[in-house]
Design brief:
The complex is a heterotrimer of chains A (about 550), B (about 280) and C (about 325). Chain A is α+β, with helices and mostly antiparallel strands and about 550 residues long. Chain A is built from 18 helices and 25 strands. In chain A, helix 1 crosses helix 2 (about 25-30). The longest helix of chain C has about 40 residues, at about 220-260. Classes of the chains: A alpha+beta (about 550), B mainly alpha (about 280), C mainly alpha (about 325). Chain A: Its main location: periplasm.
Chain lengths: ~550, ~280, ~325
């Protein structure tokens, strides 16, 4: 991560100039690292790169595909966002040059950069931004255009003050708006595209964004080729470059076999391979390839426990589970040292995350003691039983995380030693969505992979108030967590919110509600050494807007 | 669906009589199949390693005396996984064949024996099944009933129903029209008697070698379904699944080659036995 | 062309149409057994985080909560008027999607069929002319061996050998000539085995005939004997087996295209299956049925040209489904 510090640092100085609700964060950010600026003219122009990807998703309707792990890469180059959120979760200006909010966080005023246009010639003005806000919030469900889930549900309306100023109104305080505008779902699309029916929007070549690249050609399930937009000069200051991109074209090519993606990059047939098998990373590094394992802002990879289901209604059993998992062994066996031990149930790079690794120490003796106390007796076959029932844990491997099955198999070995009987079920994406739900009757543990932008939304997701997801099936039973949730929601400054978030993290881990496995790296990049200067944003997507490719090294 | 009646492949095969002792390749095939069957019945006799729990520190070791096929990405002995996986691979192929033979055989028997509109309706149904490529059919069926090995076996069996139905039907018609059956009719034998005494034994003679052949074929289809991840999830160790997992680790090629070779050897042996059965018939 | 022929042809066409229509309905029924639908499954992606209420709203807006029979009726009436509908996954017209990828699959399938034929004839020729003891036994084992190797293993080995080790083709450009060739080889191997098996058996049968012995006695050279006297009558069962395996080309393309990263009908099916994209699956299944039915129709018409001993439209009824070689077939 250190090699990117030089690219990120201009952000931090620029942040100071942003009159935003995030001055506190900006101040924090300036403390990090010495500043160094990269001169644009030192960079090499031109070059074409090929990015091998395991899927190109389903539909290309912008609203439905922007959050895709795969299509998000393309949208990130084709479309801009109002706000830029970097890998540390810092929001900085992009198409919105600056913003203000009222004291209750219910009205926001966005001041737009002038002279920005979509690739179809339409200006990126107040009208265009309002059209985008409206479709993010509501979608057009009849046509199959979904709303953007993370867009605040408290959205009321937006109005144009003048051509370059938009005022956004919310029904309730919405502290998370600004970071959400930098989330991968919030891409700015030409109002002409938005007005098209869904079947037209599904044709990628007919969609226009204002990004540094435009779609040159595409074929469903095969490839997307992007070509540089020469008049682009409104890049996010945070990445240290605002002019046109350096690389001429970027081709996203679908190669579904992981081994073929890697071998193609190794043999110089392609420049980047997405989602490599973690096992191969160390040898690839030895061969001189760049390996990037950026972490997104969100929850760590772990298990949300269903507290309604016996025996996980017993806090001792949950705590035994927390102590019975050897997280270091997961990293040593399944992953590489690029993965980090979880220190909380949210990723350590999220602003507001605090270190609770003392609660996540591997201690099989403690786990066995807790199980003994809870009345689970080890039988001759090593499996603990109570009232004739074996100590059973069913794990449903998350189909969205490549190494999930291997980790479950390893956890099954670890828990087996202290008397657990672990059953692993691995479903495909469709069946998983059908059968595995938070708090489901046959789902003692739900394996979480979820990104978010603002830690303030976490408490709401964990509990069931206001359309929350009730991850631990607590309903209204746990007053401590509900109290913390309400206090976090009503906090009006980040300083006031921080200790509450810390208390929430400690409580959830102590109670064994959430069993972290490791910090999540959902996107793994293996890259040719000739390609340099890419930037990873807050949701771990690689942007090649700032990247260059040298001829040597091939 | 076709105008004319040519002999089936089975009958085109050379009809030279074999000596009492099967040729060497057949003996080797029988020995190998026996070994695989033994693996699936008592896997514990063949390996001291645990197929599920490995030693994470010993991951991805090459083949050696301690680990004949090496170890996988979680430090599990691959030979143990192949041996313990044979039960599932053999059973699933068996299920597929049984479904194909029973369902297909029944359809063919009923159609051929009853004739008339029953035959017409069943023939159309079989035509539909036959018109959909076998593997496509298997993929669609396994999607419909859910992804696991038993379902993959059922799907494979369903995709073979049409072939068995056709062969059975033609054999039934042939036998029914044979002089000794007509004679039996004339001498007042009951339909059931004729069916069980004459038609079924005669027809099954050509269906059984086909069933053996399909056993090998089913292993491949089920492995292919596993390759597309429509089979059991890990830590199951069906051979197809082992190959499919192994392909993600190209640096450690034995993870693909060992289970692939066992699969190929098994299918080859079964095919050889089927051929021998046909020619010694 | 007598009237009996026309009646027969009409009957055959009607049968074919029924088979295709039933295949379409069959797919609908099988896929409809499934709980859920592609839209719900996409919405349930945990990254989306939609609540069940929101999902229900969106599904209802798409008309997916209508009774199954109503959905079947609207789908079927669309099919009859040539409208294959919109893909539930990509929201694009199915016809456009299929037309986009059909050429790639056609190229793969025809080259594979051609390679399979060449391979089968070469192997079969060898079994007739090579010395009985050594070469023959080996060649006779070939079809069996070809049928025993999983298709994807062949593909993976070819890619690593010729794509990476020898650098003959770029894996990321699967439509290049060499890449297409090796994909076709992968697909051709099991098909060629089936053809070779039937061809060898038929050649052996013909070789035992008296007229061959006579020809051999006259000192006819083996190649001439093979092409002149053996190949032509033996090609009859070959035509049958080709007509039967033509569907397997499409089935096999599912794996071959996935392994080689080609975008074609097969890879579309794989994606549609995992997302239950019914309109695409129905379109592909009916397409496969059309190809299969046509191939068999053509095979029937070609027969009399190949073997004068066959009389077209004899007294026998055209219903003799079990007449075809029921040999092995591989995925």
């Amino acid at each position: 991560m250190t090699d990117r510090a030089s690219l990120l640092s201009p952000t931090r100085r620029r942040l100071l100039r942003a009159t935003s609700a995030f001055t506190a964060l900006a101040l924090l950010a300036t403390l990090a690292g010495p500043a160094a600026t990269l001169a644009d003219d030192a960079k090499k122009e031109g070059g074409d790169i090929t990015f091998l990807i395991d899927s190109l998703g389903d539909t290309w309707i912008p609203n439905n595909s922007a959050i895709s792990s795969f299509q998000g890469h393309i949208w990130g180059h084709v479309a801009d966002k109002l706000v830029y959120v970097d890998a540390q979760g810092q929001a900085s200006p992009w198409i919105a040059e600056r913003w203000e909010q009222n004291a209750t966080a219910t009205e926001f005023t966005l001041h737009l950069k002038q002279g920005v246009t979509f690739s179809d010639g339409t200006p990126v003005d107040a009208t265009a931004v309002i059209a985008n806000l409206d479709i993010w919030s509501a979608g057009r469900k009849k046509e199959g255009i979904n709303p953007i889930f993370l867009f605040p549900k408290t959205y009321e309306r937006a109005e144009a003050v003048d051509a370059a100023t938009v005022k956004v109104f919310f029904k309730k305080p919405t502290l998370g708006l600004i970071p959400t505008l930098g989330y991968h779902g919030s891409i700015l699309i030409s109002p002409k595209t938005i007005a098209q029916p869904a079947t037209e929007q599904a044709d990628l070549s007919k969609s226009s964004g204002s990004g540094p690249y435009i779609v040159e050609s595409w074929k469903e399930g095969d490839h997307v080729t992007l070509t540089k937009r020469k008049d682009y000069n409104w890049g996010p200051a945070a990445v240290g470059h605002t002019g046109p991109a350096f690389l001429d074209t970027i081709t996203y090519k679908l190669v579904s076999e992981p081994s073929l993606r890697i071998a193609s990059v190794q043999s110089g047939q392609a420049d980047v391979a997405y989602n490599a098998s973690p096992q191969e990373l160390s040898s690839l590094k030895d061969e001189g390839f760049t390996v990037a394992t950026p972490r997104y802002l969100g929850f760590v990879n772990g298990l949300a426990i269903n507290t309604k289901l016996a025996p996980y209604d017993d806090v001792k059993v949950r705590q035994a589970l927390q102590a019975g998992i050897n997280r270091q062994e997961i990293i040593d066996t399944v992953y590489t040292p690029d993965w980090k031990l979880a220190t909380s149930f949210i990723q350590s790079n999220v602003p507001g995350a605090t270190d609770h690794s003392d609660l996540l120490v591997y201690n099989p003796e403690k786990a066995e003691k807790l199980l003994d106390e809870a009345g689970w007796v080890k039988g001759a076959d090593g499996v603990r039983t109570k009232d004739g029932k074996p100590l059973l844990l069913t794990l449903h491997s998350n189909p969205y995380l490549a190494a999930s099955k291997s980790i479950d198999e390893l956890i099954s070995q670890q828990l087996g030693k202290i008397g657990w009987k672990v059953v692993i079920r691995a479903y495909d994406v469709v069946t998983f969505g059908e059968k595995v739900k938070f708090g489901g009757v046959a789902v003692p543990a739900y394996e979480v992979t979820r990104s978010f932008i603002d830690a303030g939304t976490v408490a709401g997701i964990l509990t069931n108030a206001n359309n929350g997801e009730n991850w631990f099936a607590l309903d209204e039973r746990d007053t401590v967590i509900n109290d913390l949730r309400d206090k976090i929601a009503s906090a009006d400054t980040l300083d006031a919110r921080a200790p509450l978030l810390d208390a929430l993290q400690k409580y959830v881990l102590e109670q064994g509600y959430f069993i972290p496995r490791t910090e999540i790296v959902q996107r793994i990049y293996v890259q040719s050494p000739a390609l340099k200067g890419e930037v990873y944003n807050g949701v771990a997507y690689a942007s090649y807007y700032t990247a260059t490719k040298s001829e040597v090294g091939q | 669906m076709t105008l004319l009646s040519t002999a089936t492949a089975a009958h085109l095969a050379p009809t030279r009589r074999r000596a009492a002792l099967p040729p060497l390749p057949v003996v080797l095939s029988l020995v190998f199949v026996a070994l695989v069957i033994a693996w699936s019945l008592v896997p514990g006799l063949f390996t001291g390693h645990d197929p599920i729990a490995g030693v994470p520190a010993d991951k991805l070791l090459g083949p050696s005396l301690a680990h004949w096929f090496g170890t996988d990405h979680l430090g599990r002995d691959l030979f143990a996984r192949v041996v313990f996986g044979s039960a599932s691979s053999v059973t699933s192929a068996l299920i597929a064949v049984v479904i194909g033979v029973l369902a297909g055989g029944l359809i063919g028997l009923v159609a051929g024996f009853l004739g008339g509109w029953v035959d017409t309706v069943l023939a159309r149904f079989v035509d539909v099944l036959l018109a959909i490529p076998k593997f496509l059919l298997a993929v669609i069926v396994v999607t419909a009933i859910g992804f696991d090995t038993i379902n993959a076996a059922i799907a494979t069996g369903v995709s073979a129903v049409a072939v068995f139905a056709r062969v059975m039907r033609s054999e039934v018609i042939k036998t029914r029209e044979a002089t000794f059956v007509e004679a039996s009719f004339l001498s007042g034998g009951s339909r059931w008697h004729i069916l069980l005494r004459h038609v079924l034994p005669n027809a099954s003679r050509s269906v059984l070698p086909l069933g053996v052949l399909h056993f090998g074929d089913s292993i491949l289809v089920i492995a292919s379904l596993a390759f597309l991840s429509y089979g059991d999830p890990p830590p199951a160790s069906d051979w197809g699944l082992l190959i499919s997992i192994g392909k993600d680790y190209p640096k450690w090629p034995w993870l693909v080659y060992a289970p692939a070779l066992v699969t190929i050897a098994t299918v080859l042996s079964v095919n050889r036995i089927s051929r021998w059965l046909r020619t010694t018939d | 062309m007598n009237s009996a022929y026309l009646t027969y042809a009409g009957k055959r066409l009607a049968q074919a149409a029924i088979v295709i229509l039933l295949a379409y309905v069959f797919t609908f029924v099988v896929v409809s057994i499934l709980p859920g639908d592609p839209i719900t499954s996409v919405l349930r992606n945990p990254q989306n985080g939609f609540s069940e209420e929101e999902i229900a709203q969106i599904v209802a807006a798409q008309g997916l909560d209508r009774p199954v029979l109503e959905q079947l009726w609207s789908s079927l009436s669309g099919f009859l008027t040539g409208d294959l509908g919109l893909s539930m996954r990509s929201h694009r017209p199915v016809t456009t999607m299929i037309a986009e990828v059909l050429p790639s699959t056609l190229i793969l399938a025809t080259s594979a069929l051609f390679l399979a034929l060449v391979l089968a004839v070469v192997v079969a020729y060898g079994t007739q002319v090579l010395p009985k003891r050594y070469g023959q036994g080996l060649l006779r084992a070939f079809p069996s061996l070809f049928l025993s190797v999983p298709n994807f293993v062949i593909g993976l080995v070819l890619i690593h050998l010729f794509g990476f080790q020898l650098g003959l083709f770029r894996v990321i450009n699967p439509d290049s000539a060499w890449a297409t060739f090796f994909a076709a080889v992968t697909l051709a191997i099991p098909i060629s085995a089936q053809i070779a098996e039937v061809l060898i058996a038929s050649l052996d049968h013909e070789a035992d005939q008296d007229y061959i012995a006579v020809a051999r006695g006259r000192g006819l050279r083996p190649f001439r004997l093979f092409t002149r006297h053996l190949l032509k009558p033996s090609s009859l069962p070959v035509v049958t087996v080709i007509a039967l395996t033509i569907g397997e080309l499409l089935g096999g393309s599912l794996i071959t295209e996935t392994v080689f990263g080609r975008t074609g009908i097969g890879s579309h099916v794989q994606r549609s299956v995992s997302t239950q994209d019914l309109p695409v699956l129905q379109a592909v299944v009916s397409l496969a049925a059309v190809v299969f039915v046509l191939a068999n129709l053509i095979a029937d018409l070609v027969y009399p040209l190949l073997d004068p001993r066959v009389k077209l439209l004899g007294a026998r009824t055209p219903r003799s489904p079990a007449s075809k070689p029921a040999g092995a077939s591989a995925p």
